[in-house]
Every structure is written in structure tokens, then in C-alpha cells.
């Protein structure tokens, strides 16, 4: 007898309750950090896996800036806090889950 999820009644193997919980509580932080030569980078924190890759590519193209991601952080060259937040909301991230340090 497989273990059943008490919330959805499905076997734990195929239940997605925990994933939904994680998505719902996932918070994204956007803030500015100092880079070399007194320039700024915009950091987007809180994404993971595939999402990190795709979102980095999307943000770079939409904001027309350079950027990369490392150790779970997206790093965009320049100050793009407000614009990055707008793009993430367009992508479907709940606005209330995004903390933008403007
Ligand atoms: Zn469940």
C-alpha cells in the first residue's frame, strides 16, 4: 500500500501539494549591488533550476543588458530593478511575492 497524501488523497509519489506550497511561498528578491569600477548590477534572487536559465535569458533580452547567473542568483548589468520586476510579473510571478528594493 503506497503512502497517501492526507490533503489531496493521491499517492505521495504523484502528489504535488508540496511543490504547490513551495511555489506559493517562493519569494523573489530584486536588489542592486555594487560591481567593479563603481558600476551596479541588479541581482534577482529566489529562482532555481530551469527557471533560472530561462529567466536569465529572457531578462537579458527584454532589458537589453548583459547578465549571467551563478549560485542561484541572476546578475544583470546595470540598474534594472523596476524593469526586472515588471518583466517577472509579466512572466506570471505573483507581484506580492516579489520584493524589489527600489
Ligand atoms: Zn497531496
How would you describe what is shown here?
The chain is α+β, with helices and mostly antiparallel strands. The protein has a single domain (27-100), classed as 2-Layer Sandwich (Translation Initiation Factor Eif1), CATH 3.30.780.10. It is built from 3 helices and 5 strands. The chain has a 5-stranded mixed β-sheet with strand order 3-4-2-1-5, covered by helices on one side. Helix 2 packs across helix 3. The longest helix is centred in the middle third of the chain and has 15 residues, at 49-63. The termini are far apart. The model has no long low-confidence stretch (mean pLDDT 89). The protein binds zinc ion (ZN). Residues 5, 7-8, 10, 15, 17 line the site of zinc ion.
Number of domains: 1
What percentage of residues falls in helices of 4 or more residues? 25-40%
Cα end-to-end separation: 52 Å
Examine the coordinates and then state which fold CATH places here, giving the name of the CATH topology.
Translation Initiation Factor Eif1
Order of strands across the main sheet: 3-4-2-1-5
With helices defined by DSSP (H or I, 4 residues minimum), what is the helix count? 3
CATH class: Alpha Beta
Compute the average pLDDT. 89
- Which residue ranges are poorly predicted, with pLDDT under 50 across at least 5 consecutive positions? none
CATH architecture call: 2-Layer Sandwich
Bound molecules: zinc ion
Largest sheet: 5 strands, mixed
% residues in beta strands? 15-25%
| Shape verdict | elongated
CATH superfamily caption? SUI1-like domain
* DSSP strand tally: 5
Radius of gyration, in Å, reads 17 Å
- The H-and-E topology, N to C, reads as HEEHEEHE
Going by helix content, strand content and strand pairing, the class is alpha+beta
Amino acid at each position: 500500500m503506497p503512502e497517501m497524501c492526507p490533503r489531496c488523497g493521491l499517492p505521495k509519489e504523484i502528489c504535488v501539494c508540496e511543490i504547490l506550497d513551495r511555489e506559493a511561498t517562493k519569494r523573489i528578491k530584486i536588489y542592486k549591488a555594487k560591481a567593479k569600477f563603481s558600476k551596479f548590477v541588479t541581482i534577482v534572487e529566489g529562482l532555481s533550476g530551469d527557471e533560472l536559465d530561462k529567466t536569465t535569458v529572457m531578462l537579458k533580452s527584454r532589458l537589453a543588458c548583459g547578465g549571467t547567473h551563478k549560485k542561484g542568483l541572476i546578475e544583470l548589468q546595470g540598474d534594472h530593478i523596476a524593469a526586472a520586476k515588471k518583466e517577472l510579473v509579466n512572466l506570471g510571478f505573483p507581484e506580492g511575492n516579489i520584493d524589489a528594493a527600489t
